[in-house]
């Protein structure tokens, strides 16, 4: 990321961190919960901890830069939109870690494992509370838009964007699980899952919300925005899958090899199975779906992938998709502001170069 763009992104992140913290500081006074309840404040505490713990806030950056496509003047509604985006992300993280039985997230305990630690003798309650915590984050992501001090038509349009993004994401999660029941997985299936599960809420929704807040109807540009978001989403999902095997656990904040242990036909796993044969393929197949797969076994699978060039081939494929997205963004120049267009040109490359 260039120094100029990095400075802008850091500014968005700093501002949003303060906004997000203030939101949680006041949430206890605005949420109508029975006075006797101690589980409700505990739920808010866990959501706050997960939400404020870290993350790249790239969706917030995309939101602000989407508004900058239209104007560099201050834009009302971006704080509410950013809160909605990140609360939807919190919802996704809570439920992802429940689905995957993930113990850690962003260098700390997942919400599910935090509840399990608090209520070790009540596993069903821990599971139920985790589901409800994620559901509450989703409801709050819509409520912040409905409560925003904005024209009613804009509030409605923003809430519609987020509702559709949430629905698309849930379909993506469903098909992500379904994918592992369907036998051999094609590249088209992987791309469709990435589009629904990642691209539509992480890229397309921030683009739509930023344009709406800046006073521009995104509908006339829907086809090209969708194409751009899909390519960036594929890049991002491929990078996530690549890092799950070839990344550094210390940098990621969680162990590598989760896709292997869960038996997930990720981009990396599919390419490993396509490339490996003989003893190497048996090592991969034995590790796939083994919840007790050791770090040593994960390291052995990683070595097989490196030896067969799987990691390098994925890097090349990610860059091809990134270049296609970059070319799409370059086509926005006649219509929108130069510096913001340049930002979106570079987003796909940053996506494939990240290390966490």
TrEMBL record:
Q: Which domain of life is it from?
A: Bacteria
Q: Which GO terms describe its biological process?
A: isoprenoid biosynthetic process
User: Magnesium: is it a keyword of this entry?
Assistant: yes
Q: Which CDD domains match?
A: Trans_IPPS_HT (cd00685)
According to the UniProt entry, its GO molecular function terms are: metal ion binding; prenyltransferase activity
Pfam families on file? polyprenyl_synt
Spell out the PANTHER family in the cross-references.
Answer: FARNESYL DIPHOSPHATE SYNTHASE
This chain's protein is named Polyprenyl synthetase family protein
Q: Which organism is it from?
A: Streptomyces tagetis
């Amino acid at each position: 990321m260039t120094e100029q763009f990095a400075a802008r992104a850091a500014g968005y992140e700093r501002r949003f961190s303060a906004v997000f913290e203030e939101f949680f500081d006041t949430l206890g006074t605005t949420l109508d919960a029975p006075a006797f309840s101690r589980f409700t404040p505990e739920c808010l505490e866990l959501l706050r901890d997960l939400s404020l713990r870290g993350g790249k806030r790239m969706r917030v950056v995309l939101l602000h830069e989407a508004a900058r496509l239209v104007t560099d003047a201050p834009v009302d509604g971006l704080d509410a939109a950013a809160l909605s985006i990140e609360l939807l992300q919190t919802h996704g993280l809570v439920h992802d870690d429940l689905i995957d039985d993930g113990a850690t997230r962003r260098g700390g305990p997942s919400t599910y494992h935090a509840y399990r630690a608090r209520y070790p003798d009540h596993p069903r309650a821990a599971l139920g509370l985790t589901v409800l915590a994620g559901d509450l984050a989703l409801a709050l992501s819509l409520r912040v838009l409905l409560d925003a001090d904005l024209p009613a038509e804009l509030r409605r349009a923003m809430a519609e964007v987020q509702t559709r993004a949430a629905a698309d994401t849930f379909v993506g999660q469903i098909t992500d699980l379904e994918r592992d029941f369907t036998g051999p997985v094609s590249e088209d299936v992987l791309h469709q899952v990435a589009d629904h599960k990642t691209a539509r809420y992480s890229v397309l929704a921030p683009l739509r919300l930023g344009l709406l807040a800046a006073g521009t109807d995104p509908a006339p540009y829907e086809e090209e925005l969708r194409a751009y978001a899909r390519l960036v989403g594929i890049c991002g999902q491929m990078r996530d899958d690549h890092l799950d095997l070839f990344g550094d656990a210390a940098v990621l904040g969680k162990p590598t090899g989760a896709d292997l242990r869960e038996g997930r036909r990720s981009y990396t796993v599919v390419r490993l199975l396509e490339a490996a044969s003989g003893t190497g393929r048996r090592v991969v197949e034995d590790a796939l779906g083994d919840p007790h797969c050791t770090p040593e076994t994960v390291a052995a699978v990683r070595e097989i992938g490196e030896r067969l060039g799987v990691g390098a081939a994925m890097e090349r494929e990610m860059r091809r998709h990134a270049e296609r997205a970059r070319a799409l963004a370059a086509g926005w120049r006649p219509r929108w502001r130069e510096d913001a267009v340049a930002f979106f040109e570079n987003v796909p490359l940053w996506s494939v170069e990240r290390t966490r």
